Amino acid sequence: MFSPEGPTLRELAVQALSSTERGYDLLAPKFDHTPFRTPDRVVDAVGDVLWRLGPFGTGLDVCCGTGAGTTMLRGVCRERVVGVDFSAGMLDVAREIVPKPPGAIPIDWVRADARRLPFTPKGAFDIAISLGAFGHFLPAERPGLFAGVRDALRPGGRFAFPVAAPLPPSSREFWLLRGFDAAMRVRNALWRPPFVMYYGTFRLTEVLADLRRVGFDVEAPALDALGHRPDGSPRCRLVLATRR
């Protein structure tokens, strides 16, 4: 799961006993060599759909990390792209590694908490994305997070993010992630500051309801490029939320 360039077990332990923000500051230099980075095939699948829906003017990558999604977003926007993350370390890496080809539209990197997006005036963006970060938000925080993204979008603007299909309880991965979530709950009950990262709290039906509640119309088409399960259902869907 980790390449030789990834973090050591000791480094992971130190990060896990830090706050969420500090943990990602420490992880940032080796983040792209871990399984925590959204795979390129997912980024590309989302980008293909957005390319067909676009082009867009201005784009926002919420919880941009080291910029994989931001780079993709620049390919479907024509004016400006902004990457937002609360980890200064992740933004430092993004500034260093994201390509700057001649003539490319600018990318602004902004350090901010996604629950309190700082953009004024409201309605500045045509498209917002987020890839692989929602496990860092508790379910009670989602409506506020989604409302902040809504306010950053113009009326009719889109908010897009992938959601993987639930793992079957018969799979090894299902129990590994259940075990991880249980370990994180024990860690956060016994240790401060908390490190918020849960894999089992982002359920599609609940997420769609939260989006509708704060003022989005939503659809969730299959990301066919990522394949289907043996029963024919998609392995991943792309939530497309449109600001009313």
UniProtKB/TrEMBL annotation:
Give the Gene3D superfamilies listed for this entry.
Vaccinia Virus protein VP39 (3.40.50.150)
Its GO biological process annotations read:
antibiotic biosynthetic process; methylation
* Keyword Transport belongs to the record: no
Q: CDD domains this protein is in?
A: AdoMet_MTases
Which spans are transmembrane here?
none
**By its UniProt entry, which Pfam families does this protein fall under?**
Methyltransf_25
Task: Describe the location of the Methyltransferase domain by residue ranges.
Answer: 60-157
Alphabetically, the GO molecular function entries are: methyltransferase activity
Name of protein: Methyltransferase domain-containing protein
Q: Which UniProt keywords apply?
A: Methyltransferase, Transferase
